[in-house]
């Protein structure tokens, strides 16, 4: 398998950053000017490699994973941020804002030098090789400008490398002008990359014709939306998405496998363009590890063998993978998935990792959440325990790749653009329904377990074992929870049961056996076993619940006490009354022939709302939501609505824990129409006297 690993970037940058101004008449013999450098294929390949490198940098990858996801209805920071883009409090001096700006313009300058000199390769490279190299460079220049205009609005457009300080002084173009230039660059790139396709290339870390087409669809949708509102671009977005669907049709497969493949360096056919990361050893030229699963995965900060230096092949959290877990998934996201949607438990992990000391076993068990817990869960698309063993051992170097563009996104973009241009046509329905049909289970499976506790029911002292019986299916799993005194989701000492594995092919509702089930004579009972003596006269009509408080073998006499403990002489084991036996019902998801399809007859606005929701569920934590909400003109209203969720005004789920509400409510408290666009960094304002700061800063 070919990996487009970034190598010798230092050498490449030296060549790319060379000045065109000649201070000496003669250059040293071991020096290559930019004019001389692009005359061999290896030199062109190194230059292209450097153009991609900033997309993997902390500024444009790790930071973006947080900034593009946290201040949305997808997630929030685990720790409050006083001044940060994640809390809508960034200022012109913010380091992350500055690094984003700088990284983009560094790459643009490198690309401009390359484009100015790629003609020197004539005779050493074939015309096809030159066209492909120029196409990649033009696309990437457009993409870096896309990363600028989305966050900063209008920015200076530099299409040639400045030769003097004065040439670096340039005014901002409008956002529309920037989008126009992006589309010009990318459209030319698409024409030059006709022979560089997903099929001919065989891997997805360099852009192909289909990747350019898909990103052009995305760019055109953003140009058509707020704040630019260049509505004619919807037609172009539709056309570009349709080109991908025509040139590279894909049958959507298992949703979870996309991200398992990303963790294991396997190319998944649904991924059209990805950022590739790999960790093969401790040496600097071997390590191109990335942040995936570390900042946006299930927190696991314990380290087995902490004496091993970070960056070596140690055993840091060897089985789970080290993860800072900077992000929480928002409760609204978890609650938005409908019964049968297989994406929910992959997108929002239903477990966490316990704290493990350095002397403990390196194989910690997962701690599963009760179904009722909707806050403070972690994103689960990237799971470091699915990486290879070398990658898992590294604190900050993950093998996991990031899908910049997936085929499902193309389908949803087409459906949105088609709806705007022609209304909710059959073609628009077919596109969104492809995504939905993959998302929903085609097999009956466990959905939830409802527990009705009686007034007197108490599980004080022990959590009961529970197991599934019957139903005809396989793979289902449940887990019991008992509420504590400070549990915001469950009343104290009352039972709840969560589905931790949904299984398949459940042709009937299974039943739940509570601990040892119904009482039986001549049975050896252990301490804290629970038993039920059937009694239809109890309020719930199930029976009387007892906990074994002294182990022993039961006699022929069933416990009949309705308070306190039974007498060992009469019952053998001692049974302490625990109130009414709870009524437990297993709920299944049973698919129908049209369960996943959107209802027919939707109007254009209803269909758009469905698209917006489907992108929310399908593409969560893939760095698209913030800009989607902004182009739809609903970012501010959506974020202000988050305050109701945090405070408990949403009927679908309870409010957040008191000790976690600061981080979750910060974006909702601080968002304004002005600060959804970042400020121009102080460094640019200082150096570029022609630039004007964005409003509100």
CATH class of one domain: Mainly Alpha
- Strand arrangement within the widest β-sheet reads 15-16-18
What average pLDDT do the residues reach?
89
Here the CATH topology of one domain equals Serine Threonine Protein Phosphatase 5, Tetratricopeptide repeat
Counted by DSSP, the helix tally is 22
Q: Which structural class is indicated by helix and strand composition?
A: alpha+beta
Fraction of residues in H or I helices: 25-40%
Low-confidence stretches: 1-31, 304-316
**Total beta strand runs:** 19
What does it look like?
The protein is of the alpha+beta class. It has 22 helices and 19 strands. Strands 15-16-18 form a 3-stranded antiparallel beta sheet, with no helix packed on it. It has a two-stranded antiparallel sheet with strand order 1-5. A two-stranded antiparallel sheet has the order 2-8. The relative contact order is 0.12.
């Amino acid at each position: 398998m070919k990996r487009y690993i970034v190598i010798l970037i230092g050498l490449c940058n030296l060549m790319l950053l060379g000045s065109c101004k000649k201070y000496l008449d003669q250059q040293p013999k071991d020096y290559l000017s930019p004019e001389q450098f692009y005359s061999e294929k290896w030199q062109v390949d190194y230059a292209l490699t450097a153009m991609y490198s900033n997309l993997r940098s902390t500024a444009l990858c790790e930071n973006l994973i947080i900034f593009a996801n946290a201040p949305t209805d997808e997630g929030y920071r685990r720790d409050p941020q006083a001044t940060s883009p994640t809390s809508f409090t960034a200022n012109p001096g913010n380091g992350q804002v500055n690094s984003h700006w700088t990284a983009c313009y560094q790459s643009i300058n490198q690309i401009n030098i390359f484009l100015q000199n790629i003609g020197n390769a004539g005779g050493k490279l074939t015309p096809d090789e030159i066209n492909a190299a120029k196409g990649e460079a033009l696309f990437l220049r457009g993409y870096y400008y896309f990363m600028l205009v989305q966050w900063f609005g209008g920015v200076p457009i530099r299409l040639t490398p400045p030769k003097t300080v004065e040439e670096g002084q340039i005014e901002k173009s409008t956002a529309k002008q920037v989008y126009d230039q992006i589309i010009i660059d990318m459209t030319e790139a698409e024409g030059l990359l006709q022979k560089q396709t997903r099929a001919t290339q065989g891997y997805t870390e360099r852009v192909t014709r289909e990747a350019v087409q898909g990103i052009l669809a995305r760019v055109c949708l953003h140009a058509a939306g707020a704040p630019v509102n260049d509505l004619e671009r919807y037609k172009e977005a539709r056309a570009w998405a349709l080109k991908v669907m025509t040139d590279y049709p894909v049958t959507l497969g298992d949703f979870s496998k996309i991200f398992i493949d990303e963790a294991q360096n396997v190319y998944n056919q649904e991924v059209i363009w990805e950022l590739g990361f790999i960790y093969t050893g401790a040496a600097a030229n071997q390590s191109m590890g990335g942040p995936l699963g570390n900042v946006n995965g299930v927190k696991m900060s314990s380290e087995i063998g902490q004496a091993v230096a970070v960056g070596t092949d140690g055993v840091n959290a060897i089985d789970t993978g080290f993860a800072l877990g900077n992000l929480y998934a928002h409760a609204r996201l978890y609650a938005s998935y409908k019964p049968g949607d297989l994406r929910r438990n992959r997108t929002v992990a239903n477990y966490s990792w316990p704290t493990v000391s350095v002397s403990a076993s390196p194989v910690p068990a997962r701690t599963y959440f009760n179904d009722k817990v909707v806050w403070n869960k972690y994103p689960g698309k990237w799971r470091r325990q699915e990486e290879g063993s070398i990658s898992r051992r590294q604190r900050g170097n993950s093998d996991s790749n990031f899908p910049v563009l997936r085929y499902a996104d193309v389908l949803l973009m087409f459906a949105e653009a088609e709806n705007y241009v022609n209304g909710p046509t059959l073609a628009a329905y077919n596109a969104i329904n492809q995504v939905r049909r993959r998302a929903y289970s085609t097999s009956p499976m466990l959905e939830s377990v409802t527990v009705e506790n009686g007034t007197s029911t108490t599980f004080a002292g022990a959590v009961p074992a529970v197991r599934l019986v019957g139903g005809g299916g396989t793979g289902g799993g449940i887990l019991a929870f008992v509420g504590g005194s400070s549990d915001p989701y469950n009343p104290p000492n009352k039972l709840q049961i969560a589905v931790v594995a949904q299984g398949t092919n459940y042709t009937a509702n299974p039943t739940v056996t509570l601990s040892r089930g119904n009482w039986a004579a001549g049975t050896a009972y252990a301490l804290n076993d629970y038993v039920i003596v059937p009694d239809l006269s109890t309020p719930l009509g199930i029976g009387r619940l007892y906990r074994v408080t002294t182990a022993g073998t039961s006699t022929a006499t069933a416990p009949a006490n309705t308070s306190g403990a039974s007498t060992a002489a009469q019952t053998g084991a001692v049974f302490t009354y625990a109130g009414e036996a709870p009524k437990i019902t297993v709920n299944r998801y049973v698919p129908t022939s049209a369960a996943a399809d959107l209802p027919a007859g939707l109007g254009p606005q209803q269909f758009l709302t469905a698209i917006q929701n489907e992108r929310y569920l399908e593409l969560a934590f893939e760095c698209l939501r913030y800009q989607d909400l902004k182009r739809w003109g609903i970012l501010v209203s959506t974020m202000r609505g988050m305050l109701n969720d945090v405070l408990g005004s949403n009927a679908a789920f309870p409010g957040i824990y008191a000790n976690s509400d600061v981080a979750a409510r910060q974006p909702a408290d601080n968002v304004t129409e002005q600060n959804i666009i970042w400020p121009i960094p102080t460094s640019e304002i200082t150096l570029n006297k022609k630039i004007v700061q964005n409003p509100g800063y």
